[in-house]
Amino acid sequence: MLQIAGxxxxxxxxxxxxxxxxVIKIILALNILEIGLNIFIISIGFVRGGEAPIFSSxxxxxxxxxxxxxxxxxxxxxxxxxxxxxxxxxxxxxQIYAKYHTFELDEMGxx
Amino acid sequence: MLINVLExxxxxxxxxxxxxxxxxxxxxxxxxxxxxxxMLSVVAFVLMKAPDVAxxxxxxxxxxxxxxxxxxxxxxxxxxxxx
Amino acid sequence: MNIALFVAIPLxxxxxxxxxxxxxxxxxxxxxxxxxxxxxxxxxGETVIxxxxxxxxxxxxxxxxxxxxxxxVNILFLSVxxxxxxxxxxxxxxxxxxxxxxxxxxxxGDLFNLFVFLEISGISAYLITSTNKNPxxxxxxxxxxxxxxxxxxxxxxxxxxxxxxxxxxxxxxxxSQLTDKTPVLLPFLLMFLGxxxxxxxxxxxxxxxxxxxxxxxxxxxxxxxxxxxxxSLVFGRILIDLFVFEGRFIVIVSTILLVSILAGExxxxxxxxxKEILLYSSVAQAGLVVLLFVSGLASWALFMVMANAISKMIxxxxxxxxxxxNGDDITVLQGIFTNNKLIGFSFTIASLSVIGLPxxxxxxxxxxxxxHLFGEQMFLAIIAILLASVVxxxxxxxxxxxxxxxxxxxxxxxxxxxxxxxxxxxxLIVFGITVEPIESLxxxxxxxxxxxxxxxxx
Amino acid sequence: xxxxxxxxxxxxxxxxxxxxxxxxxxxxxFGDAMLENRVSQSYIDRDATENNDGVVFDESLDLxxxxxxxxxxxxxxxxSFDTLGEVTVLFISSFGVAxxxxxxxxxxxxxxxxxxxxxxxxxxxxAVILMTGVFVSIHGHLTPGGGFxxxxxxxxxxxLLYLADDEFRAKMRGFKILESVMGVFYIILGLAxxxxxxxxxxxxxxxxxxxxxxSAGMIPIVYIIIGLKVGSEISSVIDHFLSxxxx
Lengths: 111, 83, 458, 247
Known about the structure:
The complex is a heterotetramer. Chain B is mainly alpha-helical. Chain B has helices at about 1-25, 25-45, 50-75. Chain B contains 3 helices and no strands. Chain D is mainly alpha-helical.
């Protein structure tokens, strides 16, 4: 179920990218797409009844069933990269606002 | 089965919040919906046994990204105004 | 010589460079020179990082194909940097990071690591275009690039879910053992589209226009020549190593490519703006290159990338430099070569090579590619290449006539720029007349490709 | 009209993807991932390069990667090169934000005046959050978390000071030096691995017993470096976003 939700979130993000004409909203849609993708990536490593992949005083040996740790490591990287692009996108948005005094693509003089 | 029900509820709420974030007319409301969407995705990560990702998403995804959005809107004095 | 240094040295220099503004350009040139010198000491084979053998850890790969690619990218990069470093010295850190990203991109043997380097080089590319002073275009570039790499990530995660590995060699072995290839259709398509955005394939290239229309002498050659070369070489390598072309996939891919080539040429033919002509023609050329890769002519595609990159570097540098004072309309730039014979000469050679006239590198490449395609009876590709060449011939000759026609316009070019561009133009002629270096290089490259153990012909 | 087209496109795409994944016999459904067929089983069993009889918490000595948290073992050991790239992405975007938004501008004035209680309270909270951030970074190999969330926590404690004090501006120069030095440390750590063991970024310290604080070789060091670096980078991003031109 969560896997499907991840896919649908990605589709919603894509829809938002295609239809929105507002700079902030475009970055927002990009973020929704990334969250959906992250949920999807985690979901392919999920094992029902599995433990979180951390050895501790409760889960002491590797004989137990664990969920896949690799997708989690990949998502950690993807989240941080997502923040990087979002920050840069917002910085561009600020520049755009300074130049055109609006966030709406349609209200900008050129193009 | 409690977990399954929880998964379905979280899934539906995720989609609802994403829809609200995209369709809301006010930018600051959209940003708040995005923040709660991100917070809810933390629940989804916990349900899928990914505590590391959940912690990172909670701090970075919903905390910092939201504040960056808000600061951008603050700097342009568009908070609360209808777009 | 450990090839991990080609990533570590520019990266370390980038971290240092934020401390001191005067030092940064020196570090940039030092790192770039270090790599070019270091390339002559590398050995083929894989370099393990972190001490875990594939498929458990990440490793970097080196062979003749990658070595040639590294030479092309790094030498062009250094020439762009040397021409621009005075004016754009505040970009030194960004350029160091983009050097890191491009080198890592070419060498890595791991799909997720490729994604990381794609983002690194992507982000530095957005920042390089920010020197255009057109934030809207850079923003669109950023959105397109992020969507592209997200699609790529989606595709690779599906591959991981199916095969349980992220290693390029491991995956390609497992894929080639499949009897029914339909399960990999979707991930391949997603990765193809994602990388296609970066390689400027139509109809995914809407960002190109905004970026290259305002391009300056740094961002123009950087994006149109260095980045285009690196991205298409990486794309080509993944096409050869991983993708299996069968059934529906080849239909979709060749449709995209043919549309890309023809639409690009048509738009270039219609345009009245010099930069637009160049950029649409480079869209069409990106399509041609990928078409050659898809047809299994990897080494000729590599040489085509090389010829195009050199030509585009000359063309974009000249036009960007001339239009900084005058604007870039075709009528305004009329006659800029009357007082600059050397620049005009380089420009003419570069554009004739792109068309594919004899005596120039472009001709050798196109002729041999057509020969091989004819041998394998791929007539659709042949028609596309010939048609594209004819249209290119018409608009480039028209452009050249305009630019050579005498008029009042006077533009002065930097002496260093003249020297570098002339050297590059001479290179195009040398490779066009003496075929031996290309032929011998081709043999070593193809041996390297076959040793990889993958079937790279359709 | 355009919206309807986009909706149809997205729906068709989604349906195609879902249909394709359902028919795919290689693609395990939700909750049925088969770890035996994936490289990650070896990450859990710690037998990618050497055989071992099993991993037991608090007992196993000197495994190939000594972090009790397998995700951390992957992030900071098996795939450490990715993490170096990730740090680079954050570095370049923080540099880019500074480049785009420019330096030495006035910071945004807040709508409200922070009072005495707010100032004192947020300073106390600042200390607590800072400590938590450092704790999370250092314990990354034992508990969930690690350098990235830890660094973000450090940055959010700085954010608190920004909000509580109208006049506060972080010492940008100090952050820059911290950022640069930490980045160089990471590279030097990698090069030291290259010198000592012959592999870039290889762990060359003792791994110790699984699950103790002083275990896992380089991982705690790497995570402290990442935590400080990420913290200073994000703080500088926040500082630039809180600045504006003119008054």
